[in-house]
């Protein structure tokens, strides 16, 4: 067992873990933060996307020990109290959620995109989301939600 | 995943010492975008895992007009893709990165890790080979430089000895040339069904003549494969459609693709033929603008 210390959604977390634990398993199983889901488990579907030091990554392909002392943001860290993040709001308003399994990953990838590029074109949104699969095939509304969230962030 | 002992190395020396101690029983973990998947499926089960991801001395992109480009092995794909100097001087390299998996994978996966993993479907390998790149392999006894042409030995096998670490990639200065990477894949984030990277330079006094060319095919056999006959046909010749057709035909003949879920051997050869044509044309067009 190894000691892992890191920051998750602004809070310091310390835990004793098996070195083979992926970041996704650590978040989901150890900490019970069930927003970060394992879909394919091999880096293709993007359901497990979280941000490490601001960058979107696939938590199912990263050993939790690799993010020692780093800062992780998950879907649970987006809303402030009762106020949802603009991207979350936009997904709801645009009906960009069907079964919901891919939504956390879609939203985390979109957050990272909009911070890097606050005013993306539709093409850029589609490129950024190419590593996130939606098996309900609801891509149109998801892309629309990201574009409208970009518009909303600009107004703020 | 089978159990293993985990060592986070802080320096190259520390990693090399651990490698000489544990040898074949150890695996190096960079970004792990391939290795972690294999370990989850128990296809690879090291007893000792040496995590080098946080060795900051291996994370850099340096350019010099004479020396060319030097990429630290732990540079992420995303850093290469977004580097201004890479985009300007080695456009094919940045463009190739845009076709590699997805942004989150590129944010964590490393260029050196991709090469050391030696997947024949690598996007990085044929592109760097087309530029004539070489890699530095570091062991406890010192380092050696190996051309990428000699680095790949078989499926997932390289010239790396069990106590060596891939530490740097050197890409020669670009010269007055143009390159183009074309990846054929089913979906945007998939591995290549087949791919071709072509880099060519033109003669200074005859701008319609090819001075040098490298045509490298990916996912057509155990290792990335140079189309030697296609290249020899082209060197020193005036570029025209007949020559391009012939080079493409020879390349397709020399490729060794295998039939799998992505397509039959014949189908892949036909795609290779088309991609070689397209990459030569685009590379020549780009070279003529330099």
Describe this protein's structure.
- The complex is a heterodimer of chains A (156) and B (290).
- With 156 residues, chain A is of the alpha+beta class.
- Chain A folds into 2 domains: 2-77, Roll (Ubiquitin-like (UB roll)), CATH 3.10.20.30; 86-155, [2Fe-2S]-binding domain (DNA polymerase, domain 1), CATH 1.10.150.120.
- Chain A has 5 helices and 5 strands.
- Chain A has helices at residues 23-30, 86-93, 103-116, 122-128, 139-155; strands spanning 2-8, 11-17, 49-52, 55-58, 71-73.
- Chain A has a 5-stranded mixed beta sheet, covered by helices on one side.
- The longest helix of chain A has 17 residues, at 139-155.
- The radius of gyration of chain A is 15 Å and the shape is globular.
- Chain B has 290 residues and is α+β, with helices and mostly antiparallel strands.
- Chain B folds into 3 domains: 5-51, Uridine Diphospho-n-acetylenolpyruvylglucosamine Reductase, domain 2 (2-Layer Sandwich); 56-171, Uridine Diphospho-n-acetylenolpyruvylglucosamine Reductase, domain 3 (2-Layer Sandwich), CATH 3.30.465.10; 177-288, CO dehydrogenase flavoprotein, C-terminal domain (Enolase-like, domain 1).
- Chain B has a 5-stranded antiparallel beta sheet with strand order 4-5-10-6-7. In chain B, strands 11-12-13-14 form a 4-stranded antiparallel beta sheet, sandwiched between helices. A 3-stranded parallel beta sheet of chain B has the order 1-3-2, covered by helices on one side.
- Chain B starts with a strand and ends with a helix.
- The A-B interface holds A 2, 18-20, 22, 41-44, 46, 49, 52, 55-58, 61-63, 65-66, 68, 109, 112-113, 127-128, 130-132 and B 1-6, 8, 29, 32-33, 36-37, 39-40, 49, 51, 53-54, 78, 98, 101-105, 107-108, 188-189.
Summarize the model shown.
The complex is a heterodimer of chains A (156) and B (290). With 156 residues, chain A is an alpha+beta fold.
């Amino acid at each position: 067992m190894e000691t892992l210390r890191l920051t998750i959604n602004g809070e310091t977390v310390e835990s004793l873990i098996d070195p083979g634990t992926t970041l996704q398993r650590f978040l989901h199983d150890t900490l019970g933060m069930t927003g970060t889901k394992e879909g394919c488990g091999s880096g293709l579907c993007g359901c497990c996307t979280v941000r490490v030091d601001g960058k979107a990554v696939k938590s199912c392909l990263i050993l939790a020990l690799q993010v020692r002392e780093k800062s992780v943001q998950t879907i649970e860290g987006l809303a402030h109290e009762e106020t949802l993040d603009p991207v979350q709001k936009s997904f709801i308003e645009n009906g960009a959620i069907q079964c919901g399994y891919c939504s956390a990953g879609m939203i985390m990838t979109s957050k990272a995109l909009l911070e890097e590029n606050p005013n993306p074109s539709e093409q850029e949104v589609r490129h950024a989301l190419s590593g996130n699969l939606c098996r309900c095939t609801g891509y149109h509304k998801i892309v629309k939600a990201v574009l409208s969230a970009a518009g909303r962030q600009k107004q703020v | 995943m089978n159990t293993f002992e985990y060592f986070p190395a802080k320096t190259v020396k520390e990693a090399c010492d651990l490698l000489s101690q544990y040898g074949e029983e150890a695996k190096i973990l960079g970004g792990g975008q391939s290795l972690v998947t294999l370990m989850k499926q128990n296809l690879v089960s090291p007893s000792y895992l040496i995590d080098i991801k946080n060795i900051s001395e291996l994370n850099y992109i340096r350019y010099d007009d004479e020396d060319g480009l030097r990429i630290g092995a732990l540079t992420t794909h995303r850093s290469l893709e977004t580097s201004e100097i890479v985009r300007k001087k080695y456009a094919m390299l940045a463009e190739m990165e845009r076709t590699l998996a997805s942004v989150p994978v590129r944010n964590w996966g490393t260029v050196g890790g991709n090469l050391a993993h030696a997947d024949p479907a690598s996007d990085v390998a044929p592109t760097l080979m087309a530029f004539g790149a070489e890699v530095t392999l570091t062991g406890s006894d010192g380092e050696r430089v190996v051309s990428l042409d000699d680095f790949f030995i078989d499926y997932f096998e390289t010239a790396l000895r069990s106590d060596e670490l891939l530490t740097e990639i050197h890409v020669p200065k670009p010269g007055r040339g143009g390159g183009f990477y074309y990846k054929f894949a089913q979906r945007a984030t998939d591995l290549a069904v087949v791919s071709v990277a072509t880099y060519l330079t033109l003669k200074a006094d005859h701008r319609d003549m090819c001075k040098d060319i490298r045509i490298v095919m990916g996912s057509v056999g155990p290792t990335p494969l140079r189309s030697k006959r296609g290249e020899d046909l082209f060197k020193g010749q005036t570029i025209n459609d007949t020559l391009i057709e012939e080079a493409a035909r020879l390349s397709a003949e020399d490729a060794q693709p295998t039939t799998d879920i992505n397509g039959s051997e014949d189908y892949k050869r036909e795609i290779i033929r088309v991609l070689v044509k397209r990459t030569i044309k685009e590379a020549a067009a780009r070279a003529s603008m330099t």
